[in-house]
Write a structure and sequence with these properties.
It is a single chain. The chain has 288 residues and is an alpha/beta fold. The chain has a single domain, classed as Vaccinia Virus protein VP39 (Rossmann fold). Helix 1 runs parallel beside helix 4 and helix 6 runs parallel beside helix 8.
Length: 288
Protein backbone atom coordinates (compact mmCIF):
# COMPACT_ATOMS: atom_id res chain seq x y z
CA UNK A 1 0.00 0.00 0.00
CA UNK A 2 1.39 3.42 -0.98
CA UNK A 3 0.76 5.39 2.19
CA UNK A 4 2.39 8.51 0.81
CA UNK A 5 0.02 8.53 -2.17
CA UNK A 6 -2.95 8.02 0.17
CA UNK A 7 -1.93 11.02 2.25
CA UNK A 8 -1.17 13.14 -0.80
CA UNK A 9 -4.68 12.53 -2.15
CA UNK A 10 -6.16 13.17 1.30
CA UNK A 11 -4.40 16.53 1.68
CA UNK A 12 -5.15 17.55 -1.91
CA UNK A 13 -8.84 17.11 -1.13
CA UNK A 14 -8.55 18.72 2.29
CA UNK A 15 -6.90 21.78 0.72
CA UNK A 16 -9.94 22.39 -1.49
CA UNK A 17 -12.22 22.10 1.55
CA UNK A 18 -10.03 24.34 3.73
CA UNK A 19 -10.22 27.26 1.29
CA UNK A 20 -14.04 27.04 1.20
CA UNK A 21 -16.84 27.94 3.56
CA UNK A 22 -16.01 27.59 7.27
CA UNK A 23 -12.43 26.73 6.33
CA UNK A 24 -9.32 28.73 7.11
CA UNK A 25 -10.01 32.42 7.80
CA UNK A 26 -8.21 33.51 4.65
CA UNK A 27 -9.89 36.92 4.52
CA UNK A 28 -7.85 37.93 7.58
CA UNK A 29 -4.57 37.40 5.73
CA UNK A 30 -5.20 40.61 3.78
CA UNK A 31 -4.40 42.60 6.93
CA UNK A 32 -0.60 43.11 6.72
CA UNK A 33 -0.33 43.01 10.52
CA UNK A 34 -2.14 39.67 10.79
CA UNK A 35 -0.34 36.53 11.89
CA UNK A 36 -1.98 33.17 12.49
CA UNK A 37 -3.00 32.20 16.01
CA UNK A 38 -0.63 29.24 15.74
CA UNK A 39 2.40 31.47 15.13
CA UNK A 40 1.11 33.99 17.69
CA UNK A 41 1.26 31.18 20.28
CA UNK A 42 4.77 30.23 19.11
CA UNK A 43 6.08 33.80 19.06
CA UNK A 44 7.46 33.98 22.63
CA UNK A 45 9.65 30.93 21.91
CA UNK A 46 10.52 31.64 18.26
CA UNK A 47 13.17 34.24 19.01
CA UNK A 48 14.34 36.85 16.53
CA UNK A 49 13.46 36.00 12.92
CA UNK A 50 14.52 39.13 11.06
CA UNK A 51 16.92 38.35 8.26
CA UNK A 52 16.78 34.57 8.70
CA UNK A 53 16.38 32.08 5.86
CA UNK A 54 13.69 29.64 6.94
CA UNK A 55 11.89 26.59 5.59
CA UNK A 56 8.45 25.51 6.79
CA UNK A 57 8.10 21.77 6.36
CA UNK A 58 4.57 20.48 5.70
CA UNK A 59 3.26 24.03 5.23
CA UNK A 60 -0.21 23.17 3.79
CA UNK A 61 -1.93 26.46 2.77
CA UNK A 62 0.96 28.55 4.02
CA UNK A 63 -0.87 30.81 6.47
CA UNK A 64 1.74 30.07 9.13
CA UNK A 65 4.49 30.49 6.53
CA UNK A 66 3.15 33.94 5.66
CA UNK A 67 3.07 34.75 9.36
CA UNK A 68 6.77 33.91 9.70
CA UNK A 69 7.54 36.22 6.78
CA UNK A 70 5.67 38.99 8.53
CA UNK A 71 7.90 38.42 11.56
CA UNK A 72 10.93 39.07 9.38
CA UNK A 73 12.09 35.73 7.95
CA UNK A 74 12.68 34.87 4.28
CA UNK A 75 10.58 31.74 3.97
CA UNK A 76 10.34 28.66 1.77
CA UNK A 77 7.25 26.47 2.20
CA UNK A 78 7.33 22.77 1.38
CA UNK A 79 4.43 20.34 1.24
CA UNK A 80 3.62 16.90 -0.18
CA UNK A 81 0.29 18.08 -1.58
CA UNK A 82 0.39 19.83 -4.99
CA UNK A 83 -3.11 21.22 -4.42
CA UNK A 84 -2.09 22.72 -1.08
CA UNK A 85 0.90 24.41 -2.69
CA UNK A 86 -1.27 25.69 -5.54
CA UNK A 87 -3.58 27.37 -3.04
CA UNK A 88 -0.63 28.58 -0.92
CA UNK A 89 0.98 30.28 -3.92
CA UNK A 90 -2.27 32.01 -4.80
CA UNK A 91 -2.86 33.18 -1.22
CA UNK A 92 0.67 34.58 -0.95
CA UNK A 93 0.46 36.30 -4.35
CA UNK A 94 -2.93 37.86 -3.62
CA UNK A 95 -1.55 39.28 -0.38
CA UNK A 96 1.81 40.29 -1.86
CA UNK A 97 3.82 38.15 0.56
CA UNK A 98 7.06 36.71 -0.90
CA UNK A 99 7.24 32.96 -0.22
CA UNK A 100 8.99 30.32 -2.32
CA UNK A 101 6.69 27.26 -2.31
CA UNK A 102 7.89 23.79 -3.32
CA UNK A 103 6.04 20.49 -3.77
CA UNK A 104 8.01 17.71 -2.12
CA UNK A 105 7.93 14.89 0.38
CA UNK A 106 9.77 15.93 3.57
CA UNK A 107 12.36 13.19 3.13
CA UNK A 108 13.29 14.58 -0.30
CA UNK A 109 13.63 18.16 0.97
CA UNK A 110 17.44 18.20 0.89
CA UNK A 111 17.50 16.87 -2.66
CA UNK A 112 14.97 19.50 -3.76
CA UNK A 113 16.20 22.50 -1.75
CA UNK A 114 19.88 21.80 -1.12
CA UNK A 115 21.82 21.21 2.09
CA UNK A 116 22.98 23.77 4.62
CA UNK A 117 20.69 26.50 3.30
CA UNK A 118 18.57 27.52 6.28
CA UNK A 119 18.85 29.31 9.61
CA UNK A 120 15.43 28.01 10.68
CA UNK A 121 13.52 24.80 10.08
CA UNK A 122 9.94 25.27 11.28
CA UNK A 123 7.62 22.32 11.74
CA UNK A 124 4.14 23.35 12.83
CA UNK A 125 1.21 21.77 14.54
CA UNK A 126 -0.19 18.48 13.26
CA UNK A 127 2.79 17.57 11.07
CA UNK A 128 4.89 14.77 12.57
CA UNK A 129 2.06 12.22 12.61
CA UNK A 130 2.22 12.02 8.80
CA UNK A 131 5.85 10.79 8.84
CA UNK A 132 6.69 7.09 9.28
CA UNK A 133 10.29 7.53 10.47
CA UNK A 134 11.13 10.26 12.99
CA UNK A 135 14.88 9.61 12.84
CA UNK A 136 14.93 10.10 9.10
CA UNK A 137 13.02 13.36 9.61
CA UNK A 138 15.62 14.56 12.14
CA UNK A 139 18.41 13.71 9.71
CA UNK A 140 16.66 15.74 7.02
CA UNK A 141 16.36 18.70 9.40
CA UNK A 142 20.07 18.44 10.24
CA UNK A 143 21.01 18.46 6.57
CA UNK A 144 18.83 21.50 5.79
CA UNK A 145 20.35 23.65 8.55
CA UNK A 146 23.49 25.73 8.24
CA UNK A 147 25.84 26.04 11.21
CA UNK A 148 24.15 27.94 14.03
CA UNK A 149 20.69 27.29 12.57
CA UNK A 150 17.83 26.01 14.67
CA UNK A 151 14.86 23.71 14.55
CA UNK A 152 11.52 24.87 15.93
CA UNK A 153 8.73 22.34 16.45
CA UNK A 154 5.35 22.71 18.06
CA UNK A 155 3.12 19.71 17.57
CA UNK A 156 0.42 17.61 19.15
CA UNK A 157 1.69 15.66 22.12
CA UNK A 158 2.05 11.92 21.51
CA UNK A 159 -0.12 11.26 24.58
CA UNK A 160 -2.95 13.17 22.91
CA UNK A 161 -2.34 11.18 19.73
CA UNK A 162 -2.74 7.98 21.74
CA UNK A 163 -6.24 8.84 22.91
CA UNK A 164 -9.63 7.90 21.56
CA UNK A 165 -12.60 9.75 23.02
CA UNK A 166 -15.81 7.76 23.23
CA UNK A 167 -19.13 8.14 24.99
CA UNK A 168 -19.16 6.70 28.48
CA UNK A 169 -20.37 3.10 28.50
CA UNK A 170 -20.61 2.87 24.72
CA UNK A 171 -18.52 0.55 22.59
CA UNK A 172 -18.91 2.35 19.29
CA UNK A 173 -18.94 -0.07 16.30
CA UNK A 174 -16.89 2.29 14.11
CA UNK A 175 -14.22 3.30 16.56
CA UNK A 176 -11.48 1.45 14.66
CA UNK A 177 -12.32 3.35 11.49
CA UNK A 178 -12.29 6.85 12.99
CA UNK A 179 -9.69 8.51 15.22
CA UNK A 180 -12.13 10.46 17.42
CA UNK A 181 -15.39 8.73 18.43
CA UNK A 182 -17.39 11.16 20.50
CA UNK A 183 -21.10 11.46 19.83
CA UNK A 184 -22.96 13.94 22.04
CA UNK A 185 -22.97 14.19 25.78
CA UNK A 186 -20.46 12.97 28.32
CA UNK A 187 -17.28 11.46 26.89
CA UNK A 188 -14.08 10.04 28.31
CA UNK A 189 -10.63 9.59 26.73
CA UNK A 190 -9.23 6.10 26.42
CA UNK A 191 -5.57 5.19 25.79
CA UNK A 192 -6.03 2.75 22.92
CA UNK A 193 -3.68 3.90 20.15
CA UNK A 194 0.10 3.32 19.95
CA UNK A 195 2.32 5.77 21.82
CA UNK A 196 5.65 4.65 20.35
CA UNK A 197 6.54 4.71 16.67
CA UNK A 198 5.18 1.71 14.81
CA UNK A 199 6.08 0.30 11.40
CA UNK A 200 2.56 -0.05 10.08
CA UNK A 201 0.43 3.12 10.10
CA UNK A 202 -2.95 3.66 11.64
CA UNK A 203 -5.43 3.88 8.78
CA UNK A 204 -8.36 6.29 9.12
CA UNK A 205 -11.35 7.25 7.05
CA UNK A 206 -12.65 10.73 7.92
CA UNK A 207 -15.37 12.08 5.67
CA UNK A 208 -14.94 15.60 7.07
CA UNK A 209 -11.81 17.56 7.93
CA UNK A 210 -11.12 19.71 10.98
CA UNK A 211 -11.98 22.85 8.96
CA UNK A 212 -14.47 23.52 6.18
CA UNK A 213 -18.04 22.42 5.65
CA UNK A 214 -17.81 20.07 2.66
CA UNK A 215 -16.97 16.39 2.59
CA UNK A 216 -13.42 15.37 1.78
CA UNK A 217 -13.19 13.69 -1.63
CA UNK A 218 -10.36 11.33 -0.57
CA UNK A 219 -11.12 10.53 3.08
CA UNK A 220 -8.50 7.82 3.70
CA UNK A 221 -5.27 8.68 5.50
CA UNK A 222 -2.32 6.98 7.21
CA UNK A 223 -0.70 8.20 10.45
CA UNK A 224 2.16 7.28 12.78
CA UNK A 225 2.68 8.34 16.37
CA UNK A 226 6.15 9.08 17.81
CA UNK A 227 6.93 9.04 21.52
CA UNK A 228 8.31 12.25 22.97
CA UNK A 229 11.52 10.43 23.88
CA UNK A 230 11.85 9.21 20.27
CA UNK A 231 11.47 12.74 18.92
CA UNK A 232 13.96 14.24 21.38
CA UNK A 233 16.58 11.53 20.91
CA UNK A 234 16.22 11.61 17.12
CA UNK A 235 17.02 15.33 17.19
CA UNK A 236 19.98 14.87 19.57
CA UNK A 237 21.36 11.86 17.68
CA UNK A 238 21.17 13.85 14.44
CA UNK A 239 23.71 16.25 15.95
CA UNK A 240 21.53 19.10 17.22
CA UNK A 241 21.75 20.57 20.71
CA UNK A 242 18.47 20.72 22.60
CA UNK A 243 17.72 24.27 23.81
CA UNK A 244 14.09 24.07 24.89
CA UNK A 245 11.48 21.41 25.55
CA UNK A 246 8.17 22.39 27.10
CA UNK A 247 4.73 20.79 27.23
CA UNK A 248 1.41 22.63 26.99
CA UNK A 249 -2.09 21.79 28.19
CA UNK A 250 -3.61 23.16 24.96
CA UNK A 251 -3.68 22.53 21.23
CA UNK A 252 -5.04 24.81 18.46
CA UNK A 253 -7.96 22.62 17.40
CA UNK A 254 -10.79 20.79 19.13
CA UNK A 255 -8.94 17.48 19.42
CA UNK A 256 -11.46 15.87 21.81
CA UNK A 257 -14.88 17.23 20.85
CA UNK A 258 -17.25 17.51 23.76
CA UNK A 259 -14.40 17.58 26.26
CA UNK A 260 -12.46 20.73 25.32
CA UNK A 261 -13.11 24.46 25.48
CA UNK A 262 -11.43 27.25 23.52
CA UNK A 263 -9.80 30.32 24.99
CA UNK A 264 -9.74 33.72 23.27
CA UNK A 265 -6.46 32.83 21.52
CA UNK A 266 -8.01 29.80 19.76
CA UNK A 267 -6.32 27.22 22.00
CA UNK A 268 -8.34 24.22 23.18
CA UNK A 269 -7.81 22.45 26.51
CA UNK A 270 -9.80 20.02 28.63
CA UNK A 271 -12.81 21.75 30.16
CA UNK A 272 -12.32 19.84 33.38
CA UNK A 273 -8.93 19.47 35.05
CA UNK A 274 -6.78 20.38 32.02
CA UNK A 275 -3.67 19.56 34.04
CA UNK A 276 -4.39 15.90 33.30
CA UNK A 277 -3.38 16.06 29.66
CA UNK A 278 -0.21 17.19 27.87
CA UNK A 279 -1.90 18.31 24.65
CA UNK A 280 1.07 19.72 22.74
CA UNK A 281 4.79 20.38 23.09
CA UNK A 282 7.41 22.81 21.81
CA UNK A 283 10.97 21.77 21.02
CA UNK A 284 13.84 24.03 19.96
CA UNK A 285 17.25 22.68 19.00
CA UNK A 286 20.34 24.20 17.36
CA UNK A 287 23.08 22.98 15.05
CA UNK A 288 26.19 24.23 16.84
Amino acid sequence: MDHQAINRDNWDSRADVHVGARGYALDKVADPSWISHVVAFDRPRLGELRGLDGVHLQCHLGTDTISLVRLGARMTGLDLSPRSIEHARRIAAENKVPVDYVVSDVYQAVEVLGSGRFDLVYTGIGALCWLPDIRRWAGTVRALLRSGGRLFVRDAHPVLNSLIAQKVGEDHPDRKQQPWITGFGEATPSLELPYWEHVEPLLWRDEYSYAGSEAVASPESAEWNHALSEIVMAVIDAGLTLELLTEHDSVPWDALPGMMVADDQGEYRLAERPERLPASFTLVARLV
